[in-house]
Design goal:
Largest sheet: 4 strands, antiparallel
Distance between the termini: 29 Å
CATH superfamily of the largest domain: Homeodomain-like
Helix content: 55-70%
Order of helices and strands: EHEEHEHHHHHHH
Oligomer: single chain
Strand content: 5-15%
Number of strands: 4
Number of helices: 9
Length: 186
């Protein structure tokens, strides 16, 4: 059995959910962004306790098909942008359609309907947050960041960054970390 969880954006989220499951004595086989693989279905009282504890931490158990699909899309985008060392060189639409076994038009319509933005804008927002993170760390040049995140050029990255943030990457770097947003608020 799989439980789907909204707002899991990083490895600390996985650790927080693991702690809750241990506190409640609920057996699971694995936890990854957006999903808990259960060894067996929890009893109703346990499930209610889990739901409440997760909500206290800012997470939400999902129970309808569309919400689960939206969360899978978000999880794939997060993994692609924040946890893949190099971006695949295929279109986002092809990548998502292949991973989720749905027509991209359907995925796009469901996502836009529910979230109020397109998958592409969500993807761009995530990429820009990753650029901000890498700029603040200061370990990579803008060229290296552009290559790592699959931008066709530094100019394209800079233009998109300025369009989204209103700042050039170099100006943002001077301002520092106070301009970053939590990933679950994008």
């Amino acid at each position: 059995m799989t439980l789907y969880v909204k707002n899991m954006v990083c490895n600390r989220c996985v650790l927080a959910i693991r702690d809750v499951l241990h506190q409640l004595g609920i057996a699971y086989s694995s936890i990854q962004l957006g999903e808990i693989q259960m060894e067996r279905a929890p009893e109703s009282p346990q499930l209610l306790s889990l739901k409440n504890k997760l909500e206290d931490l800012g997470f939400e158990l999902l129970d309808d098909r569309k919400s689960k699909l939206i969360e899978k899309i978000k999880t794939l985008v997060l993994e692609l942008v924040h946890f893949s060392p190099d971006q695949p060189r295929e279109n986002l639409s092809d990548y998502l359609a292949k991973k989720l076994n749905y027509d991209y038009n359907y995925l796009s319509n469901v996502f836009s309907e529910t979230e109020g933005i397109t998958i592409e804008k969500y993807y761009i927002a995530q990429r820009i947050e990753k650029v901000k993170e890498l700029l603040v760390y200061g370990e990579l040049t803008l060229s290296e960041i552009a290559w790592q995140l699959g931008y066709s050029s530094v100019a394209y990255l800079s233009n998109q960054f300025k369009k989204v943030t209103g700042l050039s990457p170099s100006h943002f770097k001077k301002l520092g970390i106070e301009k970053r947003k939590p990933l679950d608020n994008l």
